[in-house]
C-alpha cells in the first residue's frame, strides 16, 4: 500500500477552541521511555526478528561505512610515509571507529531517537517538544495542552539553566535552528557524495589490469551504474535491502579475510598500533602535515551518521547488533590488512585497496567491491529521503511528494523529486570532479561537520532532557568536540580543493529552507494579527444579507486561537456560508505518531451548524485518508458528538434529532472543500530583505505541491479563495 504525504497550508497551528474540548488525559511515562526506548511491541520483538532486521541493515544502513576502505588511503596526500607513520594512521582510524562508531553512535545517539526517527532534525524536534526553545515549535506544543502524546515529556523537574537560556534568547533559538538545518543539508550533501566516491573508487579497479582503460571511461561507467541505482529507488527500502544485503554480507566477510591474509603476509605485529601512544608520536613527528592528514583519515568513519538517520527504517537493537558484531570487526581487520601491506609497500597508498588484494582473488574482489559500492550509495540515499520527509512534515521545507513504500514500516519513504535531483547531482559530481581526491576532500567536509553537529545537539539533549550529571556530559562533550573539531579544522583547509562542493550544495538547500520558513512565519504572523474570532463570525452571520446556503462545507482554517482572515474575506464577498460548516485543521505534531483515538477531534463552536475539526498526524504517520473516507469519518464523529451532548446551547435552539437531520441533509445536498490561497502584497514600504525573501517564498510556494491532493479530494469539490496579505 502506498500513501502520499503533502503538507497542509499552515501546519504549525490550530483552533484552540477545538483543542479546548479534547478529552484526552495525560499520563506519566517512565524515564526509560523518555530516553528513546522502543515501543512495547518493538521491545517484545523476537531475537530472530532483530537478527533478520540486522541482516537487512547491511544493505541499507552500513553501505557507506563498510566500503570506506576503497577510498580512505587513496584520499590521503602522503609524502614518503614511514612505518611509524602508517602505524600512527592506523591507530587514529582504530580509535576513531571505536569512539565515534561504537561509543557515540551505537550506544548514545541511537538512544536519542524521537520514538523511532533519527537524524539531526529528529534531535531538534525532540528538543522543541520537551523544552520551549523552538521558533514555531513551542507555539505548537503550548497551544495544545489538552492532547496527550505517547512520547510527551511529563517530568516534574523545572527547566535547566541551559533550557532557560535558550527560552529567553531569540538569537540562541535561531542559531540552534540554523545548526539543525545545516546538519540536514550536510547529510543531503553526504547522500550526493557517497554514491559518487564509492562507485568511482570501485570502478577505478579496472585501470590496474587494463592500463588502456581511460579515466573518462571509468567515470562514464560509474555514472551509468548510479543512474540504474536511482531508478531502483521507487521499489522501496525493503525490496532494495533484500536485494543488496547478500552483496554487503559477502563484502563484510571477504574484506577482513583479505585483511587477515595481509597481516600474516606483511606485518603480523600490526595490532601494536592500538596503543594510543602511536597517535601522539605521529603528531609530534609530522606536526602540521600530520594534522592535514586528518582530512583523509576522517573518511574511515564516513556513513556512520546513516546509523542514526536511517533509524526510522529499522530499530535500535538491529542496528547495534549489525554494527558491533559484523561491521566494526570487519573494518578493524580490513584497515589492519591494508596498513600491513602499505608498511611493506609504502608508495602504493594511491591505490591502497586494490594493491593489497592478492592477485588470485583480484577479479572476484573487484566484482564484490563494485556491487558493494552500489550498496554504499543506498545507505545515504535512504537517509536523505528520511530527513527530507521529516523537514517537509515539520514545515521547514517546501512540500514534495513523499510515498510510503511499506504498509508496515512508516519510516520507509521515497520522494520522486528528491530522487531525481540527487541522481543529476551525483552524476554531475562524477563527470565534473572526476578526481577521487577532490571528491574525497569534499566528502571529508561533510562527514566531519555532520558528526560535530550531532555531538552539539546530543549534548543539549543530555543536559535539557535526560538531565545527566554535568561531569558526565562535560566528559562526553570535551572528548567528542575536541576530536571532531580537529577533523573539521583539518578538512576546512581542503575547501579550495573540492571541499567547496558540499558548501555550495548546503548553501542552496539552506537558502531554500530559510526562505520557506521565513515566508511561513510571516504568513502566520499576519493571520494571527487579522484572525476572525467566534464573536466576529457571529456578528457577520447575524447580518440579514448573509445567506446560509444548503450543503456541507469543509473550510480549512489553520491559525491559533481563531479562524483564518480568508473566512472574513469569503463571507463579505460571497455574502453566504453553508448551513453546515466544519472548520478543519490538518495539524502535524512534533511527535512521530498520534494515537488513533486522537487523530480526529470534533467540537461544537457555539453557532448553528458550525463545528471545529482537528485532524492530527505525527511525522512518522501517513496521511491515509481519502476524500470520501475523510467525510465519512468526520460526519460519524459529528453524529457521535451531537448524540452525546443532550444539553442545548442557547444559540443553537435545535433538538438532537433536528441537528442530526440537518447534518444528513447537508451531506446529501453536496460537499465542498474550501481552502485559502494567500499571496503577499509587497508594498513600497517593505524592506529590501522582505521584498527579496517573500518574492523567493512565492516562487517556492507556487512550485511546490498542494496540500489537499494528499486527502484525495475530488477536483469538482475543491474551491480556492485567493487573498492578498500585505507584507
UniProtKB/TrEMBL annotation:
<keyword id="KW-0472">Membrane</keyword>
<keyword id="KW-0812">Transmembrane</keyword>
<dbReference type="InterPro" id="IPR053951">
    <property type="entry name" value="K_trans_N"/>
</dbReference>
<feature type="transmembrane region" description="Helical">
    <location>
        <begin position="499"/>
        <end position="518"/>
    </location>
</feature>
<feature type="transmembrane region" description="Helical">
    <location>
        <begin position="217"/>
        <end position="235"/>
    </location>
</feature>
<dbReference type="GO" id="GO:0015079">
    <property type="term" value="F:potassium ion transmembrane transporter activity"/>
</dbReference>
<dbReference type="GO" id="GO:0006813">
    <property type="term" value="P:potassium ion transport"/>
</dbReference>
<feature type="transmembrane region" description="Helical">
    <location>
        <begin position="291"/>
        <end position="309"/>
    </location>
</feature>
<feature type="transmembrane region" description="Helical">
    <location>
        <begin position="242"/>
        <end position="264"/>
    </location>
</feature>
<dbReference type="GO" id="GO:0016020">
    <property type="term" value="C:membrane"/>
</dbReference>
<dbReference type="InterPro" id="IPR053952">
    <property type="entry name" value="K_trans_C"/>
</dbReference>
<feature type="transmembrane region" description="Helical">
    <location>
        <begin position="418"/>
        <end position="436"/>
    </location>
</feature>
<dbReference type="Pfam" id="PF22776">
    <property type="entry name" value="K_trans_C"/>
</dbReference>
<feature type="region of interest" description="Disordered">
    <location>
        <begin position="23"/>
        <end position="46"/>
    </location>
</feature>
<feature type="transmembrane region" description="Helical">
    <location>
        <begin position="470"/>
        <end position="493"/>
    </location>
</feature>
<feature type="transmembrane region" description="Helical">
    <location>
        <begin position="442"/>
        <end position="463"/>
    </location>
</feature>
<protein>
    <recommendedName>
        <fullName>Potassium transporter</fullName>
    </recommendedName>
</protein>
<keyword id="KW-0633">Potassium transport</keyword>
<dbReference type="Pfam" id="PF02705">
    <property type="entry name" value="K_trans"/>
</dbReference>
<comment type="similarity">
    <text>Belongs to the HAK/KUP transporter (TC 2.A.72.3) family.</text>
</comment>
<feature type="domain" description="K+ potassium transporter C-terminal">
    <location>
        <begin position="550"/>
        <end position="725"/>
    </location>
</feature>
<keyword id="KW-0813">Transport</keyword>
<feature type="domain" description="K+ potassium transporter integral membrane">
    <location>
        <begin position="54"/>
        <end position="537"/>
    </location>
</feature>
<keyword id="KW-1133">Transmembrane helix</keyword>
<dbReference type="InterPro" id="IPR003855">
    <property type="entry name" value="K+_transporter"/>
</dbReference>
<feature type="transmembrane region" description="Helical">
    <location>
        <begin position="53"/>
        <end position="74"/>
    </location>
</feature>
<keyword id="KW-0406">Ion transport</keyword>
<feature type="transmembrane region" description="Helical">
    <location>
        <begin position="86"/>
        <end position="107"/>
    </location>
</feature>
<feature type="transmembrane region" description="Helical">
    <location>
        <begin position="321"/>
        <end position="341"/>
    </location>
</feature>
<comment type="function">
    <text>Potassium transporter.</text>
</comment>
<feature type="transmembrane region" description="Helical">
    <location>
        <begin position="361"/>
        <end position="381"/>
    </location>
</feature>
<keyword id="KW-0630">Potassium</keyword>
<feature type="transmembrane region" description="Helical">
    <location>
        <begin position="175"/>
        <end position="197"/>
    </location>
</feature>
Amino acid at each position: 500500500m502506498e500513501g502520499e504525504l503533502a503538507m497542509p497550508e499552515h501546519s504549525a497551528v490550530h483552533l484552540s477552541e477545538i483543542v479546548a474540548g479534547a478529552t484526552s488525559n495525560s499520563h506519566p511515562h517512565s524515564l526509560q521511555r523518555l530516553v528513546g526506548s522502543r515501543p512495547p511491541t518493538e521491545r517484545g520483538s523476537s531475537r530472530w526478528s532483530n537478527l533478520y532486521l540486522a541482516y537487512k541493515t547491511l544493505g541499507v544502513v552500513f553501505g557507506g561505512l563498510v566500503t570506506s576502505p576503497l577510498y580512505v588511503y587513496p584520499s590521503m596526500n602522503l609524502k614518503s610515509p614511514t612505518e611509524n607513520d602508517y602505524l600512527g594512521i592506523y591507530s587514529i582510524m582504530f580509535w576513531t571507529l571505536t569512539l565515534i562508531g561504537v561509543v557515540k553512535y551505537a550506544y548514545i545517539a541511537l538512544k536519542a531517537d524521537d520514538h523511532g526517527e533519527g537524524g539531526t532534525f529528529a534531535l531538534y524536534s525532540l528538543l522543541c517538544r520537551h523544552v520551549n526553545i523552538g521558533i514555531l515549535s513551542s507555539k505548537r506544543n503550548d497551544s495544545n495542552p489538552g492532547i496527550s502524546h505517547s512520547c510527551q515529556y511529563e517530568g516534574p523537574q523545572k527547566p535547566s539553566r541551559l533550557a532557560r537560556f535558550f527560552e529567553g534568547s531569540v538569537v540562541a533559538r535561531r542559531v540552534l535552528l540554523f545548526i539543525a538545518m545545516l546538519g540536514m543539508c550536510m547529510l543531503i550533501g553526504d547522500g550526493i557524495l557517497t554514491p559518487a566516491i564509492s562507485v568511482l573508487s570501485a570502478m577505478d579497479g579496472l585501470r590496474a589490469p587494463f592500463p588502456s582503460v581511460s579515466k573518462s571511461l571509468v567515470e562514464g561507467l560509474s555514472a551509468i551504474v548510479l543512474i540504474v541505482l536511482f531508478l531502483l529507488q521507487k521499489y522501496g527500502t525493503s525490496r532494495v535491502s533484500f536485494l543488496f544485503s547478500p552483496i554487503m554480507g559477502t563484502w563484510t566477510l571477504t574484506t577482513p579475510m583479505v585483511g587477515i591474509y595481509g597481516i600474516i603476509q606483511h606485518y603480523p605485529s600490526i595490532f601494536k598500533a592500538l596503543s594510543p601512544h602511536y597517535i601522539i608520536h605521529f603528531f609530534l613527528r609530522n606536526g602540521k602535515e600530520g594534522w592535514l592528514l586528518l582530512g583523509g583519515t576522517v573518511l574511515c568513519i564516513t556513513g556512520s551518521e546513516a546509523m542514526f538517520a536511517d533509524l526510522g527504517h529499522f530499530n535500535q537493537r538491529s542496528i547495534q547488533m549489525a554494527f558491533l558484531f559484523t561491521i566494526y570487526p570487519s573494518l578493524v581487520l580490513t584497515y589492519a590488512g591494508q596498513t600491513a601491506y602499505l608498511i611493506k609497500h609504502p608508495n602504493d597508498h594511491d591505490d591502497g585497496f586494490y594493491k593489497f588484494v592478492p592477485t588470485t582473488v583480484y577479479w572476484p574482489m573487484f566484482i564484490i567491491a563494485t556491487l558493494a559500492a552500489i550498496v554504499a550509495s543506498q545507505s545515504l540515499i535512504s537517509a536523505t529521503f528520511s530527513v527530507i520527509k521529516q523537514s517537509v512534515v515539520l514545515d521547514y521545507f517546501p512540500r514534495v511528494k513523499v510515498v510510503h513504500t511499506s504498509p508496515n514500516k512508516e519510516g520507509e519513504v521515497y520522494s520522486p523529486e528528491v530522487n531525481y535531483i540527487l541522481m543529476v547531482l551525483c552524476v554531475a559530481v562524477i563527470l565534473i570532479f572526476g578526481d577521487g581526491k577532490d571528491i574525497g576532500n569534499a566528502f571529508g567536509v561533510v562527514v566531519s561537520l555532520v558528526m560535530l553537529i550531532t555531538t552539539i545537539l546530543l549534548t543539549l539533549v543530555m543536559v535539557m532532557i535526560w538531565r545527566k550529571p554535568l561531569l558526565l556530559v562535560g566528559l562526553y562533550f570535551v572528548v567528542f568536540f575536541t576530536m571532531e573539531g580537529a577533523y573539521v579544522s583539518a578538512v576546512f583547509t581542503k575547501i579550495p580543493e573540492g571541499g567547496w562542493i558540499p558548501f555550495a550544495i548546503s548553501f542552496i538547500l539552506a537558502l531554500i529552507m530559510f526562505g520557506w520558513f521565513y515566508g511561513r512565519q510571516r504568513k502566520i504572523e499576519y493571520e494571527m494579527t487579522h484572525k476572525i474570532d467566534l464573536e466576529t463570525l457571529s456578528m457577520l452571520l447575524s447580518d440579514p444579507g448573509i445567506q446560509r446556503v444548503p450543503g456541507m462545507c469543509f473550510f480549512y482554517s489553520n491559525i491559533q486561537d481563531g479562524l483564518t482572515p480568508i473566512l472574513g474575506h469569503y463571507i463579505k464577498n460571497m455574502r453566504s456560508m453553508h448551513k453546515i460548516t466544519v472548520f478543519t485543521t490538518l495539524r502535524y505534531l512534533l511527535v512521530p505518531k498520534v494515537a488513533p483515538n486522537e487523530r480526529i477531534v470534533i467540537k461544537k463552536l457555539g453557532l448553528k451548524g458550525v463545528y471545529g475539526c482537528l485532524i492530527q498526524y505525527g511525522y512518522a504517520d501517513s496521511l491515509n485518508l481519502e476524500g470520501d473516507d475523510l467525510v465519512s469519518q468526520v460526519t460519524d464523529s459529528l453524529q457521535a458528538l451531537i448524540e452525546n451532548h443532550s444539553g442545548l446551547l442557547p444559540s443553537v435552539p435545535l433538538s438532537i434529532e433536528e441537528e442530526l437531520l440537518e447534518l444528513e441533509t447537508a451531506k446529501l445536498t453536496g460537499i465542498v472543500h474550501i481552502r485559502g490561497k494567500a499571496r503577499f502584497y509587497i508594498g513600497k514600504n517593505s524592506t529590501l530583505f522582505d521584498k527579496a525573501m517573500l518574492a523567493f517564498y512565492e516562487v517556492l510556494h507556487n512550485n511546490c505541491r498542494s496540500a489537499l491532493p494528499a486527502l484525495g479530494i475530488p477536483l469538482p469539490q475543491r474551491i480556492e479563495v485567493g487573498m492578498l496579505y500585505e507584507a
